[in-house]
Amino acid sequence: SRFSAGLLQEARFEAENEVLEIVAGNSTQSLLERCSELLFGQSRAPPRQVNGVLGGSVLLSPALLPNQTVKEIEWSFSGGSGATIQVAEVGPAGLERPDPRDRFGRRLELVNGTALRLRGLQSGDSGVFGARIKLQPALVEDQAFNLSVYEAVPSPRTRSQLLASTLEWCNLTLQCQGSGRGAVNVTWRRDSLTWGQLGPGRHQLSPDGTTLRVALPPAATNATYACTVSNPADHKVALFDLQSLCQGGGGPSAFSTSGYVVLSLILVAVSLGGAFWCWRVNSRRRPRQVGNTTNPKSPNPRFPKSPNPQFPKSPNPQIPN
């Protein structure tokens, strides 16, 4: 019929496209494997997402059933723009590196006989790791891991400002911002309650999520607000004690550690400048004082100097007759 003929033509068209993709993309799969996927509906599982932090480590562990026996595992890596390279072979002899001088060097190690650990993560390690697993008696299974490497999240910059504190209400703003170069996500929670569980009437969040305005009665200020700055691989938490902020006046602001460091450096610089100025002033006065002590000036000398110190000269000598 026309319907079955149309389905057959569509299947043929998809098969031809798959063959062209294999030839153009230099795929490692054979034509027989791709045809079996089309005919029997078999497809490779999507890559599992793995996130890591620069300088840290990740574990790539294949998912295996308890009754499966592994004969060999071939590990490959594709960075997206370059060609796919084979990075490791796991067999009865353990871990073997086809090219020990590749970008991974000595950073790869075998864990529990099947998993691969990558240490000292670098930004160029982001990519897809493939594991071709050969099982007993003659089965082959492919698994993939999509590794993304992120920068570590630094401590957030925090600030609190008390707007009003009365017997009935405590109104203040809490600010929390990321200080790193990469994009981060900012979330808030109160004790064990997430942002969605907080009362919207007493909480106002800025569009970018970095500033939270809180208005609570004094009886409800015995709580801790937590700000979490995170990326997919790392996170940092900053805490705000509302009771101390409301009762203690909160001060105009509460700076993070970096703010105190900058303030300390400014105070040290001012102190050194003042000490240097005092030293210059004292060094200019010192020569004048030394000159005055070496040539003292007598205010009212009682006797004039005489040529002969033993017999002073009489001012009006008398000539005898």
UniProtKB/TrEMBL annotation:
It is found in: Membrane. The chain crosses the membrane at residues 260-279. Its main location: membrane. Keywords: Glycoprotein, Membrane, Signal, Transmembrane, Transmembrane helix. InterPro entries: CD2/SLAM_rcpt (IPR015631), Ig-like_dom (IPR007110), Ig-like_dom_sf (IPR036179), Ig-like_fold (IPR013783). Residues 287-321 are annotated as: Disordered. Signal peptide: none annotated. GO terms for cellular component: membrane. Residues 298-321 have a biased composition (Pro residues). This is Uncharacterized protein. It comes from Geospiza parvula. The lineage of its organism: Eukaryota, Metazoa, Chordata, Craniata, Vertebrata.
